[in-house]
Every structure is written in C-alpha cells, then in structure tokens.
Write a structure and sequence with these properties.
CATH architecture of one domain in chain A: Orthogonal Bundle
CATH class of one domain in chain A: Mainly Alpha
Radius of gyration of chain B: 21 Å
Structural class of chain B: mainly alpha
Shape of chain B: globular
Distance between the termini of chain A: 53 Å
Number of helices of chain A: 3
Largest sheet of chain A: none
Number of domains of chain B: 1
Structural class of chain A: mainly alpha
Largest interface: A-B, 43 and 43 residues
Largest sheet of chain B: 2 strands, antiparallel
Strand content of chain A: under 5%
Helix content of chain B: over 70%
Number of helices of chain B: 19
Oligomer: heterodimer
Order of helices and strands of chain A: HHH
Shape of chain A: elongated
Order of helices and strands of chain B: HHEEHHHHHHHHHHHHHHHHH
Radius of gyration of chain A: 17 Å
Strand order of the largest sheet of chain B: 1-2
Helix content of chain A: over 70%
C-alpha cells in the first residue's frame, strides 16, 4: 500500500515500541523517564490504530480519530503527572523512585 | 438532530452544570466567605442527586455512542448517592483551616471524575469508554495529592497517576488489536464480529489487564494499598467505593455485551483472577495495622467476589453485581465514615489506636461493627445477601469449587474484621480516644449509610427492581 511496505512491518515496530515502553517503565528509576516510557506505549498504540485503519479498513476513519483522541488525552495525563512530579520534588528534593518509598508492606 | 434528545444525557449535563456553578461561585466568593462554598456545593449536589432519581426517557444518542438504559441510569444514581455521602463525610475535614484555600478544588475535581464515570457507564463505543475512563482517573491523582505538603499524599498522587497511565496504555494496546480484528469500535458491531481467534484473544488479555488495574484485581493491585494509605481519608473512600464501583459496572457491561460470544475464552481467565484476588487480598489484610491499608486490602478481596458474579454470566450475574455494589457503597462508606470521623477528631489511623473505643464512643463503635459485619457477610445484614446472590450466580453456572473457595475466603475475612471489632470492644486501653461529637453532616451521612444497609438488606423490592432492569438491558 504505502510504497509496498506490508502491514506486518508496522505491527512489528509498534509491538517493539510497546515492550520498550513497558520495560522502561519497570527498569528506569527516574519519574520523568517513566513518564516518557508511558508516552512510548501510547504512541505504539497510535501506530496500531492508524495502520489497521489504513490497511484493513480504508473506507472509514474510526482508528485515526481514536489515535487523535489518544494524543490529546496523553497530553492531559502528562501535564498532571509532571505537576505531581514537581510536587514530589518539593517534598523530597529528588525525583528518583528510591526516595518515593515512604509506604511499603 | 432534535435537541430534546439531550435529555438522555441529563445526569452528565447536570453534573457539568454543577461543577461549573461551583467554579463560578468560587470566583465570586471573598476570601473569608470561602467556607460557605461547602454548604453551596452540598445543597447543589443533593439537588442534582435528587433530580437524577426522577424517571425519564431512555435510548441512544450520537449513533449509538452514548447508550442510556434503565440499568445505566440506576448505576449513575448509585454513584451519585455514594458521592453525596462522601461529600457529607468530607464536610468536617474541608472546614479545617489547612484546607481553606482548596475547598472548591475538592468539589470540582470530584465532580469531573464523576462526569467521566457517568460517560463511561453509558458508553456505546470504545472511544467514549476510553475518554470517560481517563476523565475518571486523571483528576483523582490530583485529589490523592490533595495534602500537598505531606510527602505521603504526594507519593500517593504520583503512584496513582503513573500506574493508571500505564494501565490505560496497556488497555489501549488491547483495544487497538480488537479494532484490528473487528474493524469497529462500536460495542454493537464488535459483539457481532467477535470470534475466538488469536488476535482477539491477545487484545482481550491486554484489555482485562488494563481494567484489572482500575478495579485492583490481584496481579495488578500493587498501587492500591499505597495510594489508599497516602491519600486523605475522604479521597480514599471515594477511590475505594465510587471509582471501583464504576469500573466494576463498565467491566461487567463490556464483558456481558461486547464479549458475550467468546465466553469460553474469558471464563478461565476470570476464574483464576477471582481466586487470586480473593485469597491474596484476604491474606494481606490480616497483617495490616493501619486502618486505611486494612480497608484497602479488604476492598481488593471484595473485588474478587465481584468477579464471581461475572462468571455467573447472564441476567442473574448482572443483577448480583449491581446489587452487591449498591450494598458495598453503603457498607464501605459506613466503615470509612467512622474512620474519617475518628481521624478528624483525634488523628488516630491505626487499628491498635482503636482499643477501648467502645467505652468512649459507643454509637460509632456499633456503627463500625455493623459495617464490618456487613463487609464480612454475617447473615441478617445486607452484605450477606450481596455475597449470597454472587455465590448463587456462580453456582448456577456450575462453578462449585470456586464457590467453595469463595466461602472459605469469606470465613477468613471474618477473622480480620473481628480483629478490629475486638480492638474496639474488648482490648483494654489506658487512654482511649476521647469522647467527641462529629459534625452534623457526618451524622447525616452515617445515618444514610446505616439506613441504606438496612433497607437494601431487608427490602426484597430492591433486588427485584435491579433484576427487572438488568433483564431489559441484556435483551
């Protein structure tokens, strides 16, 4: 379709992005980097939606609309998360995960 | 399109108007009159709740994106009622001097999450469902970090927003696969095209994991206890009752309407999740001394019981879940109300701090006892019937071993609920919490909870009504 790139290539990219995001969320110890990992996950979902729409159901727009809404909501989520990270920084003067551990089992 | 059709969205519109009215009132209130906003918001929201109960039309809007039926209207009314009780309980806390400058924030954030939940419950496609879910989640993170100078509260906020963002990412990945396999995001279209193939199965697993975070099912429950402990107590009660109730409602609706053709695919999954959630929630609840953490694990265990109703698919399962959540609202808010009243008066938050409470505050002690007995499911109280119908629904589908495990778990849960009651009635204490008189609105809220527990338990009409509307909904 798009200059002969098959659907599978896009799906492989989006799946790799998704799992990089999940790994990053688990491995990284900095709150901002964890937020970036989540953005990676959401972008992989966007690729999925747009590609499925373009390749499998080209006569409709549902997938593309969905991805637009995801972009908007991800922005809202990121802004709230960053505000809360600033709040954490004011309380503990640090944004490493090790310091956000006042409550445990 | 006829504008009169917007009456179908009356709950959402009323709540939006209420939230905006509070915002405008905040602008035009002088610094020293800020506490009057509390009365204004309470009266306004009581009015909204009352108007919501007036029966009205049902139908679809926006080409099926927004579905309103008697069942969803009932769910919204349950959520409204729960939020009204939460507001009444929060009144005394909001009047404290340290909260004087953020009164309207509490109401506006809570109402916006409630709007999101209402849209989520009425969703007819996955786009509205997702937008509602996010609207219901993002402001709660702000609420959890409400005591912004306390590091526990800030920690709760960041833990909530990060884990909910991750979970919605996972959920969306699942939805994208379901879209790829079926070519639609509308519930009605997906329901006809869904088939047990690999892509759908994968998408469904991601979907359930994402929802599992929101309802705090067991492999996904790690945020729950920390957030519940760190957040202010009135936000915790909102999280554990309203937020969880709404998520359970929509999870049930989606499983029963969208994925009803692949029941065989999801039953083993829900089965495992149910056992894990009940057992681990119970085992962890036993070793807690902080009452908020204790109630967090108890609410995880209760979510496991809700899954039993999902397994008993069909009309009876749906009825049992809605009835259970209704009972759970009154019961859990009763328990949280007592905890909040004690916390407001004395700052005590540990179970051992409750030792000897009966000598000084007998009424609160009895209320706590009734709430905890109802949570445990002791016969004549409403909580028993809630669990009983869930077990009946699961047994009706032939899950006898699961019901046996659930009954064992209910017995185990009695042990730790009785630990609290033992602390209140039997343990001796040199300096028990001094006698105090809670605010009038707190008293009204507690009376509402106790009336709710008694009425839903003894009036069989409630169950029959829910059953008739679930029947209409599923057919």
């Amino acid at each position: 379709m798009i200059q002969g790139i098959p659907l599978e290539h896009f799906l492989v990219v989006s799946t790799i992005m998704f799992f990089i995001g999940v790994c990053g969320f688990i491995i990284r110890r900095n709150l901002i980097t964890m937020l970036m990992a989540i953005e990676l996950i959401l972008n992989s979902v966007n690729i999925n939606f747009v590609v499925f729409n373009r390749y499998l159901y080209p006569d409709q727009l549902q997938g593309q609309f969905f991805s637009l809404f995801i972009v908007g909501i991800a922005a809202a989520e990121a802004s709230v998360a960053i505000a809360l990270i600033i709040n954490i920084y004011r309380n503990v003067k640090n944004i490493e995960v090790e310091n956000v551990n006042e409550m445990k089992f | 399109m006829d504008l009169g059709q917007f009456i179908l969205m009356r709950h959402e519109l009323l709540l939006t108007v209420a939230a905006l009215a509070i915002l405008v009132a905040e602008i035009f209130t002088s610094e020293k009159n800020k506490s009057k906003l509390i009365n204004f918001a309470l009266v306004l929201f009581a009015l909204v709740t009352f108007i919501g109960f007036i029966p009205g039309e049902t139908g679809n809007l926006f080409g099926g994106s927004f579905q309103s039926s008697q069942l969803t209207v009932f769910m919204k009314n349950v959520l409204n009622l729960a939020v009204l009780i939460v507001f009444l309980q929060a009144e005394g806390w909001l009047r404290k001097p340290e909260n004087a400058d953020k009164i309207s924030e509490y109401f506006i954030l809570t109402l916006s999450t409630l709007i999101g939940m209402n849209f989520m419950v009425s969703a007819g496609d996955f786009l509205i469902f997702y937008i509602g879910l996010e609207t219901a989640t993002i402001p709660i993170a702000g609420l959890a970090a409400f005591d912004k100078y306390k590091s526990e509260s800030a920690e709760a906020g960041i833990k909530l927003i990060l884990s909910s963002a991750l979970s919605s990412g996972i959920l969306l990945f699942g939805l994208s696969m379901i879209y790829g396999a079926t070519g639609s995001i509308y519930f009605a279209d997906i329901a006809t095209k869904v088939a047990p193939n690999a892509l759908i199965a994968l998408g469904f697993v991601f979907f359930v994991s994402g929802m599992g975070f929101k309802i705090s099912l067991v492999p996904f429950h790690f945020w729950t206890a920390d957030v519940y402990e760190g957040a202010p107590i009135n936000v915790t009660s909102y999280l554990s009752v309203v937020s969880k109730g709404a998520a359970a409602f929509i999870f049930t609706i989606v499983l029963f309407t969208v994925f009803k053709n692949i029941v065989e695919l999801w039953k083993p999954m829900i089965y495992t999740l149910a056992i894990a959630t009940m057992t681990i929630g119970n085992l962890f609840a036993m070793r807690q001394n902080n009452i908020k953490r204790f109630l967090a694990f108890s609410s995880i265990a209760q979510a496991g019981f809700i899954l039993l109703g999902i397994l008993g698919a069909g009309e009876l399962g749906m009825t049992a879940i809605v009835y259970f959540v209704l009972v759970y609202v009154f019961t859990n808010l009763g328990a949280f109300g007592v905890v909040a009243a004690i916390h407001n008066a004395s700052g005590v938050e540990t179970i051992s701090g409750y030792n000897g409470l009966y000598q000084t505050n007998p009424k609160l002690s009895w209320l706590m006892t009734i709430s905890l007995f109802s949570l445990a499911g002791i016969p004549p109280i409403a909580g028993f019937f809630g669990k009983f119908f869930l077990f009946t629904a699961a047994a009706g589908s032939g899950y006898y071993i699961l019901v046996l495990i659930a009954v064992l778990n209910a017995t185990i849960s009695l042990y730790y609920y009785l630990l609290v009651i033992k602390a209140i009635f039997i343990e001796k204490n040199e300096q028990p919490i001094p006698e105090f008189r809670s605010s009038n609105s707190m008293r009204i809220a507690l009376v509402m909870c106790i009336t709710g527990v008694l009425v839903t338990g003894f009036a069989s009409g409630v169950f029959e009504y829910i059953r008739s509307i679930s029947k209409l909904f599923l057919n």
